[in-house]
Design brief:
The chain contains 25 helices and 5 strands. By secondary structure, the chain is mostly helical. It has a 3-stranded antiparallel sheet. A two-stranded parallel sheet has the order 4-5. It is found in: Membrane.
């Protein structure tokens, strides 16, 4: 009798509905198992029956059933508004922040350099490509934010649940490579800004070390509230807008030509060079680590996921906020393109040198050789040109804008590195150790490049190489985010529609194809068409293609276009720990149906 009473008390404390395993590609059935307590607290046991779970394991699962990420230590409360209101500016303000942090990746030094080269090479003719890239980026970021809101987990955590161990490790390595490439652009850009502001007194490697130290300092501001960190980023974005906006109004480009280039999707009299620059624009804007970052940043808001309406509202306001943020970043990018479209298009080194010779006080006028070749522009030479053409104030304002771009993007890149490492590897180190490791992984190759370069003037071409590296890593963010948001097992009723699945897949295929073309062109231009070059690349290229194909297989399974195969390598996780608490009331059983739940337990144990 005592044993029966104890068992009854245990059952009354814990009532569960166990639903049989649903393959990732078969969203017609109900989703993974749920646990509902009488107090209304929802927990997901990832397909493990509570009756067969040891007490220690059960307590641990209860603690970590939702994302246990401690990188965001404080969360912003969302205000309650009267029912029936279509739009609330108070709520929009509460949700404002993550989208602007995400948009910083569209304003990093790599993007700024791509912008100025776009203006110098094609004048205003590629502004429509920049606009299209921002629109595509917004739609992809929408998927990332939606995943974080609906699941309560960021992309790296979901990937840890979905993919088998070996592919998961490879995926983590690919994303780390992308983060390192992005971080190198950002840190080097900041170091160049220090070099410009100090008239060369702060060498490149010293600027790299300074950036590393101040990034540590700024990142721990969120211990005093995540809003304070967001305001810091807002100040940096404002600095960029004022700096590059100042250059725009000083240069005074033709507004009519700017509008024409923005809204007429054509490039008259353009050749291979302009086409490759268009490819570079797309590659610079859509960055792989940013999708992982955005899915984590949306968790900074305290969203009541037990209410479907709250999840829907969060998705809506995050999309609006992301749209506003990317509009701001687009305008800033347009400022940069227009300035150098007006000032450097078809200019020769000799012409710019003559301008520099006529203006005394410019620190490094010798950067432009005395020849009739078209100017090869980068962040450093662009600053020198502005100083020669419009005075030292324009040079220093440019450097301040570059510093804001580099500093802000370095911080968000470091955040992305922490989220990715923590999600894929489930590291339980103290936060300062994780920050140190992620910074060390990215900073060591950057410092090496700074020392080997022996001067700012030797970094021309580095941006193309780093963009090329990131382009190759793009499938390892695009394919997973489409996979996860297409699966009803993960997203439930919030999965993206068939039409949007097709659109996202097609859009991603085009972007990936463009990037692979850029990579092929980069290799042939810099290494030649020699047989031994392609032989040396054949092994990594084959491995790359096979891994991308493997991820595509999972994606097609998630969309239901193909049936999953048997085998450990192709198996999907049967016990994904992703819950759907807004379904709680619909799924919650009454005491009279207790026998049904016990039968469900029995059925699950047989699985």
């Amino acid at each position: 009798m005592t044993m029966n009473r104890d068992r009854d008390r245990a059952d009354s404390r814990r009532v569960a509905i166990m639903i049989p395993y649903e393959p990732l590609d078969n969203p017609s059935a109900a989703s993974s198992a749920h646990l509902i307590t009488p107090a209304g607290e929802h927990r997901d046991y990832g397909g493990v029956s509570p009756t067969e779970m040891p007490e220690e394991q059960e307590n641990n699962t209860l603690k970590h059933s939702e994302s246990d990420d401690d990188l965001i230590e404080t969360r912003v409360e969302i205000p309650d508004e009267p029912d029936g209101a279509f739009f609330s500016f108070n709520k929009l303000w509460a949700f404002t922040g993550p989208g602007f942090l995400m948009s910083i990746a569209y304003l990093d030094p790599g993007n700024i350099e791509s912008d100025l080269q776009s203006g110098a090479i094609a004048q205003y003719k590629l502004l429509w490509v920049l606009l299209a890239a921002h629109i595509i980026g917004l739609l992809l970021q929408r998927l990332s934010a939606r995943l974080g809101v609906v699941t309560g987990k960021h992309m790296a955590e979901v990937a840890h649940e979905v993919y088998p161990y070996v592919p998961r490790v490879f995926l983590w390595i690919m994303i780390e490579i992308a983060i390192i490439g992005s971080d190198m652009q950002e840190v080097i850009g900041t170091a160049i800004a220090f070099y410009l502001l100090s008239n060369g007194a702060i060498p490149l490697f010293a600027g790299v070390l300074i950036t590393m130290v101040d990034t540590f300092t700024f990142l721990f501001l969120d211990k005093y509230g995540f809003r304070k960190l967001e305001f810091l980023f807002a100040a940096l974005i404002t600095t960029m807008a004022l700096s590059f906006g100042y250059e725009f109004f000083v240069v005074k480009p033709d507004i009519g030509e700017v509008a024409k280039g923005m809204f007429i999707p054509w490039c008259a009299d353009c050749g291979r060079k302009e086409f490759m620059q268009a490819v570079s624009v797309v590659g610079a804007v859509i960055m792989p680590h940013n999708l992982y970052l955005h899915s984590a940043l949306v968790k900074s808001r305290r969203i009541d996921r037990t209410k479907k309406k709250a999840v829907e509202e969060a998705n809506f306001y995050y999309f609006v906020e992301s749209g506003i943020a990317l509009f701001v970043s687009f305008i800033i990018n347009v400022f940069v393109v227009a300035v150098f479209a007006h000032g450097l298009y078809n200019k020769t080194n000799q012409q710019v040198k003559e301008t520099c010779d006529a203006r005394p006080g410019i620190p490094d006028r010798t950067v432009f050789p005395n020849n009739t070749e078209i100017v090869e522009s980068d962040i450093y030479t662009a600053g020198m040109f502005l100083g020669c053409e419009f005075g030292l104030v324009a040079l220093y304002v440019w450097a301040v804008g570059i510093m804001a771009a580099g500093q802000s993007s370095t911080m968000t890149g470091t955040y992305a590195g922490q989220f990715v490492m923590d999600g894929f590897l489930k590291m339980k180190w103290p936060r300062w150790q994780r920050v140190l490791v992620t910074r060390a992984i990215a900073i060591i190759p950057t410092l090496t490049v700074a020392l080997v370069a022996r001067g700012v003037e030797n970094l021309t071409g580095m941006n193309d190489f780093l963009n090329c590296i990131q382009m190759l890593q793009l499938p390892f963010a695009l394919i997973p985010v489409i996979t996860f948001t297409s699966s009803e097992r993960i997203m439930h009723e919030f999965r993206i529609s068939r039409a949007f699945q097709g659109f996202a897949l097609g859009m991603s295929a085009v972007v990936i194809a463009i990037n692979l073309y850029f990579f092929t062109d980069y290799v042939t231009s810099n290494l030649g068409m020699y047989w031994y070059v392609w032989l040396g690349l054949s092994v990594p290229a084959t491995a790359y293609t096979l891994f991308v194909s493997y991820l595509v297989y999972f994606c097609l399974c998630a969309t239901g276009l193909i049936e999953p195969r048997e085998g450990a390598l192709f198996a999907t996780n049967k016990h994904i720990k992703i819950d759907a608490p807004w379904r709680q009331q619909a799924d919650s059983p009454d005491p009279a149906s207790h026998a049904i739940h016990n039968e469900a337990y029995s059925h699950t144990e047989q699985l």
